[in-house]
Structures are given as structure tokens and as C-alpha cells.
Amino acid sequence: MSTHDTRLGRLIEAPENFLSTEGRSRREVLRRIGLGLGATAAAAAALPALAHAGEYVPDPKYLPPNLAPWSQDLGKPVGSDPYGLPSPFERSNIRRSSPGLTTTTQSSVAFSPLQNQFGIITPNGLHFERNHNGRADINPYDHRLMVHGLVREAKIYTMEDLLRFPSVSRIHFIECGANTGMNWATPAVPTVQYTHGMLSCSEWTGVPLSTLLDDVGFDRKRAKFILAEGADGSGLTRTIPIEFALDDVLVAYGQNGEMLRREQGYPVRLLVPGVQGVSNVKWLRRIKVGDQPWNTREESLQYSDLMPDGRTRQYTWIQEAKSVITSPSGEQQLLDKGGYYQIRGLAWSGRGRIKRVDISTDGGRNWRQAELQGPVLTKALTRFCADWHWDGSPALLQSRCVDETGYVQPAMAQLREVRGTHSPYHNNGIQTWQVDTEGKVHNVQV
């Protein structure tokens, strides 16, 4: 895309908290209106449009050719923040909960702000959070991991024991099985943070579970499943096939170069790449090797799919191929008719790598291939982008991904035909964002 003969379209970001207008702010409104490419002219042109919407207007005395105060004062000492923190101007870029989604705050969700993130790695402080009995705060020196069942010698490991084993690091996403569940029947929430924000991707470090299973001498002939149990008050347990356990499952203690955060299962959790989030058991305390599934509470009363004919489908482990456009997306607003915009988004698959992403601006009647931005890794988020000139007419933005197995992300109508609308889980249908003639973006279904 040449910038010499193209006007860069301006975009107002979504309200950071659509649930309340009290104290509402929109972050860095100038960030996406062309800074670095005719920045001064673009900023000047943007100010009137932003000012009438209650946006922040910079003080002219801080703008070039003047020197702002921070360019003339002595800065803070090195090491004044022993642990680095985001700028206070980024205070609105946070996880958010949806009031009324669950009856208690201990068994609830905090959604990750996908619309504000770059690359494929989710910052530790923005990784979505899902708990079933509140966050457990565990002393790592008192914590133990027991491995037993169909094994030659049951063992109990301390954290020091686990850290002595050879470790590996891999980049993988975690997605809650209920992600996008509020879109099953109708578009119930307006922004991508709430439609798709139970999704994050990190570099995880730990011990392959296969190493621990070999250490205890598991019964290779009889072992068919493992049971993973967490140490939080819910005692959450999940059945996992032994072939998963011997493939790429990690007993993880590291996340993005540091120890796990408390809300991510500190000091140790299970990582089951490509499998619904609940199977990635946090605060891992026990692994049992068995010859059949356990049918525990979280595998029968919860995290099972009620089908249209009344039957319940259990053990839907894999998170199928899915994608979403994060910009432009719900509650954002395009300001320039005839302007250039870059459509950006994320794609992922629990079965491997993303092979292709297609983009439609007319609700799926016509498709064109988007650009995949590397790295393209197995069972990890993949960035995609596509150029788009908005002419001011209504548009229906969609993305559709294909993974390396050939699986094609389905339309919502196709998904409902098979699955119905009785289950909140495993909605990987195509997301549609409607752009109206004023440039405002809405969550719709077609």
C-alpha cells in the first residue's frame, strides 16, 4: 500500500467500558490516525472531529516545534519501578468482567482486551481469567504435585523437583470453551473484548507431562486417560486422553519468561494445547492415570454440549479453527469516507497451524485472501491483515479461516443447523461487524 496517494483513515477506538459512561475515556485516539505518516497534518485534521465527541485535545504548546516539559526535565531514576508497569496513560487497557454473567464474582470471567493488543503474545497482566472458586493464593514451598494411578511407583513432587527436570518452552493459545457463547442466539454484547476475549496466547515453560509419566513408570498397555485436579476450592477435575498427555501437554510453571501469575495457576498448571481452556487445570495438585474417563462434575453438568435432539455431547476437547477481526470491530467508528483502513485480526486452531484467512466486506458474498503475519505456529494465535478503502457505504466485515487439516470455519447458520442454540460452548462461527454510513461498527449476525 503506497502512502503517497492514499489518505489514511482515522478510527475512534471503542469505549473502554461500554457498560458505563461515568468517567469513560478512549485511549490514545491519535495512535491510529496516521502518526508517523504526515502526523502533524493528520493530527490537526482529527482534532475538530474528536473534540465534539468529548475526546482529549492536546495542548498546542506541547506540539512541535515547541518542547514539552518532559523534554526539558530530569527524568525518574533508573530502577524507580523495580517491576516494570504500563504507563498510567494505558490504565484503561485492562481485563473487564461482564456484570450479571455469573452469580458470583469468584466463579466468573475477566475478558482480555483483544482490540488493544499487538502481535500474538498476550501480556501476562491481560491474559483472560476464568475461575470456578476464586483465585487461589498458594505458597509454592507448601505445594505438591502427586502422580499416581496405573503407575509403577506413585510420586509426590515439590516445585523444586519440577524445576530440576529438563524444561521446554512453547507458544500456545488458551481459549475458554464458552468463548463467544453470548453470540449463540443473538449478538448480546457489542465489543470484541466481550465476544472473543476469553482467549489469550503465551509462551509457556515447563516439564513435558510425558517426562513425569515416564518417571513414575505409567502402564503403557492399560493407560487410556489421565485425570488432572486443581488445588483451588472447587477441586476442578478434567479427563484428558493419554495420547494428548504423551504429545505436547506441559506441566507449566512459566509464562512469558516469568513464573505464572496467581490468576493463571501459580505455582504450576497443566497446559493442554488446542484443547478447551477448562482442561488446562490451574493450581495443579494431582494427576491420576486410568483406563477410562472419570465423568466428573465439570464433564457432565458443565462443559458438555446439549444438542438439538436433546442428547448431550461430552468430551468436546478440541477448539476448532476460528478467527475474528479486531479492527475495525464493535463500537469503534471510522471517520473518513474514502480513507484507507487496515483490517486486522486473529486466527487460531486447536488442530494445528492456520493455513489461510479470507476477508469479506459484504457479508460473505465475496471473499479475498488476507495476509498472514508471521510467525505462523501450531496451536497458537496468528495475525492477519488486509487493505481496505471504505467508500462510506454500509459494509459487513467478516473473516473466515482454514487450518492445515483443511477445516473451514463455518458460518453461524451452518453451525446452528448442526448444534442448535442450547449450549454456550464451542461457538467458532464467523463473526460479522456491521459498518453503518456514519462509520459506527456494530455486532450483528447474517
Automatic annotation (TrEMBL):
Domain spans labelled Moybdenum cofactor oxidoreductase dimerisation: 319-431
GO-annotated biological processes: sulfur compound metabolic process
PROSITE patterns, alphabetized: TAT
InterPro entries, sorted: Ig_E-set, MoCF_OxRdtse_dimer, Mopterin_OxRdtase_euk, OxRdtase_Mopterin-bd_dom, OxRdtase_Mopterin-bd_sf, Sulfite_DH_SoxC, TAT_signal
The Oxidoreductase molybdopterin-binding domain, residue ranges: 137-294
Molecular function in Gene Ontology: heme binding; molybdenum ion binding; molybdopterin cofactor binding; sulfite oxidase activity
One protein family per Pfam: Oxidored_molyb
Domain of life: Bacteria
Keywords carried by this UniProt record: Metal-binding, Molybdenum, Oxidoreductase
Keyword Oxidoreductase among record annotations: yes
Reported cofactor(s): Mo-molybdopterin
Protein name: Sulfite dehydrogenase
Species: Rhodanobacter thiooxydans
Taxon lineage: Bacteria, Pseudomonadati, Pseudomonadota, Gammaproteobacteria, Lysobacterales
